[in-house]
Design goal:
The chain is α/β, with parallel strands linked by helices. The protein has a domain of about 170 residues: P-loop containing nucleotide triphosphate hydrolases (Rossmann fold), CATH 3.40.50. About 50% of the residues lie in helices and about 15% in strands. Strands 3-2-4-1-5-6-7 form a seven-stranded parallel beta sheet, with helices on both faces. α3 runs parallel beside α5 and α9 runs antiparallel to α10. The longest helix is centred in the first third of the chain and has 25 residues. The N and C termini lie close together (about 10 Å).
C-alpha cells in the first residue's frame, strides 16, 4: 500500500505537535505502521522523538549564526533550504515503508501555508495520498470572530493545495462542554454564528462573514470540526476514520 501522509497544520499553540505525538501513540496501540516527521527547523524541544527530522538537514540556529539573520528571516531561509533537500528527505521517509506518515508542520503556519517549499514537499512523493488535518486553536475558536478567522485561514490552505482537509478542534480538555457545544453549533449552523458575530445585528463584518461561509459551503469546504484531546486521547479514531473514508471508501485497513 502506498503510504498515507497526514499533515498536521495549525497556528502556534493550537496543539498540532501534541496531536502528532498522540496520533502516533494511538496508531502504535492499534498496531498500525506509522512514523513521525518534524518539518519545523526552529523547534527547540519536541514531546516525541521524530523518525525523520528536518533539523538533520537545516537548523534555524545555524542559519542565524551563519547569515546574521533574525529568527523570522532564518525560518524563511530554512524553509527554502529544506525545499532543496526534499528529494533526499522524501527518500529517507519512503525507506521506512510506513503505512502512515504523520507530518508535524512548522509552528509559524505561514511557512506551510504560503511558502513554495510546502508545495514542493506535498508533490515530492510518487503518490498523492495526502490529507491536511487543520487544528483549530480552542482559545481563538471560542469567540465568533476568532472562529471565522480560523475558518478563513483553513480554507485558504485547502484551496491553495487542493488537498483533502479535516478540521479538528484541538485541546478540548481545556474547554467546558458548553464551550465545545457552542463552537460546534456555530460551525454547523451558519445563522447561529453570524448572529453571534454581529451581536444580534447584521453589521458589515457579519455580512462579509456571511458571503465567505456561503462560498465555503458552495465549494464543499468543511466547516464543522471534530473535537479532540491529545491529553485524554479522544477523537483520534475519528481522524483515522476520515482517512479511511477518503482513501479507501470507508473500508478499514487491517494492521499487520
Amino acid at each position: 500500500m502506498d503510504p498515507i501522509r497526514i499533515y498536521l497544520v495549525g497556528t502556534a499553540g493550537s496543539g498540532k505537535t501534541t496531536l502528532t505525538q498522540a496520533l502516533k501513540l494511538w496508531m502504535d496501540q492499534q498496531g498500525f505502521n506509522a512514523i513521525t516527521v518534524n518539518l519545523d527547523p526552529g523547534v527547540e524541544e519536541l514531546p516525541y522523538t521524530p523518525d525523520v527530522d528536518v533539523r538533520d538537514w537545516v537548523s534555524v540556529k545555524e542559519i542565524m549564526a551563519e547569515r546574521g539573520l533574525g529568527p523570522n528571516g532564518a525560518q524563511i531561509a530554512c524553509a527554502d533550504l529544506a525545499a532543496l533537500q526534499f528529494p533526499e528527505i522524501s527518500q529517507v521517509i519512503e525507506e521506512f515503508r510506513a503505512d502512515y506518515v504523520l507530518v508535524d508542520t512548522p509552528g509559524q503556519i505561514e511557512l506551510f501555508a504560503f511558502r513554495e517549499a510546502s508545495s514542493i514537499f506535498l508533490n515530492a512523493f510518487q503518490t498523492t495520498q495526502n490529507i491536511i488535518v487543520f487544528v483549530l486553536d480552542p482559545s481563538v475558536a471560542k469567540t465568533p470572530s476568532g472562529l471565522v478567522s480560523l475558518l478563513m485561514l483553513s480554507s485558504s490552505i485547502q484551496f491553495r493545495f487542493d488537498t483533502p482537509m479535516e478540521l479538528v478542534l484541538g485541546k478540548c480538555d481545556l474547554l467546558t462542554e458548553e464551550e465545545i457545544e457552542t463552537i460546534l453549533e456555530h460551525c454547523g449552523n451558519t445563522d447561529s454564528l453570524l448572529f453571534a458575530l454581529g451581536d444580534g445585528n447584521m453589521d458589515m463584518r457579519a455580512v462579509a462573514a456571511t458571503e465567505f461561509l456561503r462560498a465555503m459551503e458552495t465549494l464543499g469546504g468543511r466547516i464543522v470540526p471534530k473535537p479532540i484531546s491529545s491529553v485524554e486521547m479522544t477523537g483520534l479514531e475519528e481522524i483515522y476514520r476520515t482517512v479511511q473514508l477518503i482513501f479507501f471508501g470507508g473500508e478499514d485497513l487491517a494492521s499487520d
